Amino acid sequence: MSSFNIGFVIFPDLTQLDFTGPLQVLSRLPQSTTHIVAKSETPVPSDCGLGLVPTHTFANCPPLDLLCVPGGSYGVVQAIGDRETIEFRPPAGGCCKVRHVGLHRRIHFGCCWVTQRTAGNDPLGLY
Questions:
Q1: H helices then E strands: how many in the chain?
Q2: pLDDT in tens, 35-56
Q3: I need a surface site. Which of 37, 52, 77, 106 has the fewest CB within 10 A?
């Protein structure tokens, strides 16, 4: 049986826990391989200064079955504004198709924005 390929896109100022938490869980899936993908091979700083080292670049990313994009605040805003990051489309893997989420269409994920919206705090003007 072939390996299920999981990719994580990382970018400067992402929230480290939003990346490493899912990475810890998904890396334990049987017959799976995780790949950490970024624009370049240069270490990527998280929002707390931790340097994260990609295993692949956008240019040499292997086919993926699942694509995960971690969250954050400032880093996500910058990533959304980065054309190369938004237009990155990994090759599709075997059993699942990877779809572009469409952040530019204001599709929101995660729970921190719900909390901030409820508290009346909307720093990005999304709601």
A1: 4, 6
A2: 999 999 999 999 999 999 999 9
A3: 106
